[in-house]
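Example 4.3 (complexes with small molecules)
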Amino acid sequence: MKTILYMGISANGYIAKTDGNSEWTSEEDLKGFYEQSKKAGNIIMGKNTYLAALQYGYFPFPDSLNVVVSHKQIENKWGDNVIIMDKPPKEILAMLEQKGFTAAFLAGGGQLNASFVKEGLIDEIYLDIEPLILGQGIKIFADADFEFWMELIDFKKLNINTIQLHYKVIKNQ
Ligand SMILES: NC(=O)c1ccc[n+]([C@@H]2O[C@H](COP(=O)([O-])OP(=O)(O)OC[C@H]3O[C@@H](n4cnc5c(N)ncnc54)[C@H](OP(=O)(O)O)[C@@H]3O)[C@@H](O)[C@H]2O)c1
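Answer. The structure with NAP bound is encoded below.
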């Protein structure tokens, strides 16, 4: 099972403004996000990301199994396309593996990303870097005690101002 993280970020590493708004990422970032999540067939998100997606009318993502992670009880009004889980990252991946998925698509936000990375459970990272600097906001990884190196798999220009970096996480560092 391979876990792929895909994030649209400001040039200084934020995924949203302090109020949770991430509507500033490019069309190309959204397109890449959808394509990769569709390819994996699933999309794992933290509760705040689920709430933001709901607010902006994206939730549930139609072509994927939507997995929402929260310690709270959230009513599932959507049916089989949505799973709400209060489980650690390893168990979420095991659940997806059991359902026959070979890749897991991690869709943020910063808190959930940090809980996966702390356990060494991210294999590949796509960063769509937007030409924006934010003075404050929500970081791609919430603060925690971790550090990891990556290898560059690929890079490309998505539009005149946006660059995509595709990394492989080096394991056993
Ligand atoms: N630019 C982008 O590409 C992009 C992508 C995704 C999201 N975003 C933005 O990121 C923002 C949200 O990020 P965030 O860091 O605030 O929040 P988040 O990671 O989306 O959600 C955090 C919440 O998820 C639950 N959670 C996280 N890890 C958990 C774990 N290991 N076990 C159980 N529950 C867990 C907890 O919910 P409970 O408190 O209910 O337990 C936690 O409070 C949104 O504003 C969204 O728009 C941007």
